[in-house]
Amino acid sequence: MPDVYDPAPLTADSLAAWRAEVSAALHTVTCGFEEKYGYGPGENAIHPPEAADLVAAGRLAAESAAFAELALYYGEIGAVHMSDVGNAYFLHSGARALVERIPLPEAGGTAPAVLIGSDGGGILYAVGADGAVWRSRRASEEAEFDRITNGLAEFLDLLRRSVHRFHETGQPGFV
After folding, report:
1. CB 152 within 8 A of CB 69
2. Could you tell me how far CA 30 lies from the centroid of its own chain?
3. Which residues contact 173 (CB under 8 A, 6 or more apart)?
4. Contacts for 174 with CB less than 8 Å, ≥ 6 apart
5. How far is 56 from 79, CA to CA, in rounded Å?
6. What angle do CA 167, 168, 172 make, to 5 degrees?
7. Structure pTM?
8. Separation between Cα atoms, residue 117 and residue 107, nearest integer Å
9. Of the candidates 71, 75, 67, which has an alpha carbon nearest to the alpha carbon of residue 128?
10. Tell me: the pLDDT tens digits for 86-116?
11. What single-letter DSSP state applies at residue 144?
């Protein structure tokens, strides 16, 4: 068995399938949530892209081939809120991500990394100039970052699996 994850490339169809599956799973997480945890759920939704997100997707695509998956993603999906999955996960809209950039020397290249989101504790997620997804070691843009996936498709799969894991076991996610 290979020790490297090799996901199918992202496509508009695969992103639509991801959105449908994760939306359904988020719905199951929130059903009965208040009875189980003693307080009501927060926002758990995958939003469609807005016009500004589509503009951002085009700019990212033109900027670097490393951001091709990210551009495709923002052409299909807007902000993502998973307030009640593990420690929470939040993926920024394309418009926000386009302007939230940081230097990420760990990823190589000259293009600044794109901050794509965070968890509920402020840990940051970024797509680097290498196309990989990186996670901060602490809740700061100045923190060191570790590579957690080779690309956005693998990261999205970890989020998908995190929602299912949380629903089934109550344990936090994989990212």
Report:
1. yes
2. 20
3. 85, 86, 87, 89, 158, 159, 161, 162, 163, 165, 166
4. 158, 161, 162, 165
5. 13
6. 65
7. 0.93
8. 17
9. 67
10. 999 999 999 999 999 999 988 887 779 999 9
11. -
